[in-house]
Amino acid sequence: GAVVSQHPSRVICKSGTSVKIECRSLDFQATTMFWYRQFPKKSLMLMATSNEGSKATYEQGVEKDKFLINHASLTLSTLTVTSAHPEDSSFYICSAARDTSYEQYFGPGTRLTVT
Amino acid sequence: GENVEQHPSTLSVQEGDSAVIKCTYSDSASNYFPWYKQELGKRPQLIIDIRSNVGEKKDQRIAVTLNKTAKHFSLHITETQPEDSAVYFCAANSPRDTGRRALTFGSGTRLQVQP
Fold first, then answer.
1. B3: closest chain A residue by CA
2. Which of B:14-43 have CB within 8 Å of A?
3. For residues B24 and B2, is the Cβ–Cβ distance under 8 A?
4. Average pLDDT in the A97-103 region?
5. CA A111 to chain CA centroid, nearest Å
6. Do B43 and A51 touch (CB under 8 A)?
């Protein structure tokens, strides 16, 4: 199989604090992981591509200093939302891909609410 | 970069009827076209995909067709059932970007199957 987990599933934080979201590939090694953001009733917007052992590639308009991505191992990537504000409230979903395949396997998502 | 357009945004059919969702893409180098089904609050689930060297692929009630010349691909669901009700996303990859296998998603189609 190809199972991707994400933690936490829901988080509520106060403005100005930071939140870390973890994405793990449980039964395969993922050289590449992707982070998406999804607003209610909208599509998935790619935020960044995370490659193990190297710096993430951010999409245009995504602040790299605000959304810190670390892909320290072949099974774990983390997204840290720094100094969160209410407009950062969203559904964040990660996906992971094997080196030999185009197919992406999605995590269950994290619903972030910033109060 | 890649641009993917998806139509219609909403689709309502009677149980047993067929449903067709269409997408166009802009990058002629794209060679991987997946379709995802997303239920409310859940992760996107891959339901079928097609590579650019194939014109059609079928899996039980689901089929995808690809027209590389016109740069469009379509999802066909036959004998629809109420459990097919969900949001469906098409996507295309961006092979021009070295090392990137990121997907660009369409805007989504909300399919409602009326019993």
1. A45
2. 32, 34, 36, 41-43
3. no
4. 84
5. 11
6. no
What is the predicted pLDDT for the residue at A101?
82
Rounded Cα–Cα distance for residues A89 and B42 (Å): 17
Give B2's pLDDT tier (boundaries 50, 70, 90).
Answer: confident
- The pLDDT of residue A51: 85
Reading phi first (left if > 0) and then psi (alpha if -120 to 50, else beta), residue A98 is in beta
- In angstroms, rounded to a whole number, what is the distance separating the alpha carbons of residues A31 and B49? 21
Of A32, A43, A108, the CB nearest to B107: A43
pLDDT tens figures, B68-106: 999 999 999 999 999 999 999 999 998 776 556 789 999
Q: Between β-strands B32-38 and A44-51, what pairing exists: parallel, antiparallel or unpaired?
A: unpaired
